[in-house]
Amino acid sequence: MVKITLISPPDFGSKYREFLGMIVPPLGLAYIAAVLEQHGYKVSIIDSPALNLTYKDIVKIVYKEKPDIVGIQALTPTIYNAFNVAKLVKKVLPETIVVMGGYHPTFADIATLRECKEVDICVRGEGEYTMLDIVKTVEEHGDFSRTLGITFRDRSGDIIRNPDRPLIRNLDKLPFPARHLLPMDKYMVFGMKVPATTIVCSRGCPMRCSFCASSAMYRGIVRFRSPENVVKEVEHVKEKYKVKMIAFVDDTFTLFRKWVNRLCDKILERKLDIIWGAAARVDTLNLQTLIKMRESGCTTLFFGIESGVEFILKNIGKTFTLRKVMKVFEWCRKLGIRIIASFALGFPGETLETIRKTIEFAKKLKPDFVVFSIATPYPGTAFFKECLDGGILKIKDWSKYTLLTPIIETTSLKIEEVKKMLIKAYEEFYFRPLWWAKTIAREKSVGLSMFIHVFSTILRKMLI
Questions:
Q1: How far apart are CA 285 and CA 328, in angstroms?
Q2: For residue 10, what are the CA distances in angstroms to 7, 48, 82, 198, 200?
Q3: What CA–CA distance (Å, rounded) separates 190 from 196?
Q4: Nearest 5°: phi and psi at 103?
Q5: Which residues of 310-323 are buried (b: 16+ CB within 10 A; e: fewer)?
Q6: pTM, two decimal places
Q7: pLDDT one-digit tens code per residue, 151-168
Q8: Which CATH number fits domain 3-161: 3.40.50.2300, 3.40.50.1240, 3.40.720.10, 3.30.9.10?
């Protein structure tokens, strides 16, 4: 029987980890593991960020398990970490097949194979059934010429790119993620370990934000699980892991109000008694839906606002107005829903003045928390192509694509200027005595933990 080890490589910091102290389950790997287990295969998951593992630790575990196949998750900022894991695996287990999947190998598959000879196969797009086909092919000693959704190196060393795999049409048919293979006690928010988990209700987004890799990954197509199926998973994690908080980590949880209302009704009907949060868009919400969400346990919403300047919103494909943002935030405050607002600085067309307007708008909105980041063009996005074609992409080192390092330089803004404005944005928003007084009074330990993370991170950034 073929043995498989799935690895989330070390992650040395993203904007969410640095500023919000977030370490969340790698649900993509857990879904793949669940499908493989469903078909009788022995699988393990090594979640390096959650366990704070070094490369040496990972190699020890892999060598002990001696898997036939190692699957490595790779995002753009962690691609070199993934390469390091692949090299070490091949060094101790040269016959093991190394598979790499995730956003970066999906859009830079050929480059990935060329850059790291230890990677045998890149999985493009959704990995569950592609990985299952790979495992079956290895078990049957076949070749990969008919496996959809992969780019691989054949026996002669040539790189072959097979056709795409169709998207999974009915997400309800997928088993729940294999959380029993994950260190469920290690995940945290604001640096605190809490009885919480993440759940994915949908895949894809039909919106056309130029910077979004998810829309490209799922070809602009969105698929939602049924509310009944989602509620079953909520009941499962409550019973098995004593979960009290759930983060629905969809690209746009509130995309379809009818679906949201049905889910809220199911949560209320079954008296699940949970608190939950999700990512939302202001142009998908009305007051009635927000009321229903609050009644069913919604305490936090994350909004990707990105800019406080209308023409920049239009340029990056956002279709809402600043007036709509203010109205929805007002509703949330009245309902007692915690607001986390996200802004990105340094888009093409940006100036020091527009960045200042975004900072002022962020303060005017009065969100509970804010995440400022650097506009970052990821492979596969329209934004990346725009920057590449325009010759403004100044950094090709993928490890810098963390949303905290300026990557592009325009005629109006130098890289150092954008970096300084990122620090200024955090200072101006968070270093306000009235904000801290209200936040600590309201959030108690959450507010204090948030202060520690934000304050220490800004100090580090100032000293770099």
A1: 8
A2: 9, 5, 8, 20, 23
A3: 13
A4: -60, -45
A5: eebbebbbbebebe
A6: 0.93
A7: 999 988 899 999 999 999
A8: 3.40.50.2300
